[in-house]
Specification:
320 residues
């Protein structure tokens, strides 16, 4: 099959930057929709599985009609990578959403936000990409912003409402770490596959594999999937279409133009977008601490992006 045309930072089209904005807005809606779904007493595992399944089903007609030729040309190695990517994505959503049952949102998000650091480290070891000093500074700055947001000041931020002991908090933190590591591997595999596979068949296959894995977890844990109000299922439908189909797929599209570490950095803007939506919908104004941390994350994104632009030219010269 014909691989997508390689693009450097200097020739990145305007549409790629528009997609960045779309991805941030769409993924930012996830927190709002999760809040609505939890208000309907829906289990976190059901929420995670539903967003993957809805997205996979929605993409099925387009993938089979327009990309049948590309699907037939997939090699055995590519099928294995797709399966591995789907498993990692399922682990990410299942672990991250489940972590919210044991610890607070702040603790969970801070740990999961370490994903870009793991991506950068994995790129160095497995893809032999040398990150510039400015990119590393940007990554660490964004991580520092996440720490500022979740730093417990005043009342403890490390015990979820209803948690009775530190064991529950430790369990939640472990699940969040698993979510961060698994999504990092998922992004790296996506970087490899997206070099030869268009975004629609790629995300369709990965979402499909991930949804099967998530459903298997639901069956294994006897998680209830029926008996909820119709409004709850409509929320799950919206979650699969907005943050997953549009938002997450947009991040996969961006892998064609940016390294996995930078795409992960874009996803770090999700908490900021969620805070804006919460302000508009729930009249929730984030405390100064969260606003400061969000500003630090933005600075980290800018630094890392500028570093990637500077190092892209020598990287492309070496490749040619």
């Amino acid at each position: 099959m014909k691989p997508p045309q390689e693009s450097t930072a200097r020739s990145t089209p305007l549409k790629a930057y528009i997609v960045i904005l779309v991805a941030i807005v769409a993924t930012s809606s996830a927190a709002i929709l999760i809040r609505y779904a939890l208000d309907e007493t829906m289990p976190p595992l059901l929420i995670a599985a539903a967003r993957l399944t809805v997205a996979a089903v929605a993409l099925t007609p387009v993938a089979l009609r327009r990309y049948r030729g590309e699907l037939k040309q997939l090699t055995r190695r590519e099928w294995l990578l797709i399966l591995a990517s789907g498993i990692c994505l399922a682990i990410h959503f299942t672990a991250w959403v489940s972590s919210l049952q044991y610890t607070t949102v702040l603790v969970s998000v801070v740990i999961v936000s370490t994903g870009p650091i793991w991506v950068a480290i994995m790129e160095v070891f497995f893809l032999k990409i040398r990150l510039s000093r400015l990119v590393v500074i940007g990554l660490l700055t964004a991580l520092a912003g996440g720490v500022v947001i979740g730093l417990p000041l005043g009342e403890s931020a490390f015990t979820a409402p209803g948690a009775e002991d530190l064991g529950a908090t430790a369990t939640g933190a472990l699940l969040a770490w698993i979510g961060a590591l698994s999504v990092s591997v998922y992004m790296l595999i996506g970087r490899k596959l997206r070099a030869t596979l268009p975004v629609i068949p790629y995300v369709w296959l990965v979402y499909g594999a991930a949804s099967v894995c998530a459903i298997a977890v639901i069956l294994a844990t006897s998680t209830p999937v029926a008996g909820f109000r119709a409004q709850g299922y409509l929320i799950l439908l919206a979650m699969g279409l907005a943050p997953q189909l549009i938002g997450h797929s947009s991040l996969n599209y961006l892998l064609e133009y940016f390294p996995a570490a930078i795409v992960s950095m874009f996803s770090q803007l999700e908490p900021i977008g969620s805070a804006v939506l919460a302000l508009l919908l729930f009249r929730e104004l984030p405390p100064d601490q969260q606003i400061a941390g969000s500003g630090i994350i933005i600075i980290g994104v800018i630094l890392a992006s500028r570093g990637e632009i500077r190092q892209s030219a020598p990287r492309d010269a070496d490749a040619s």
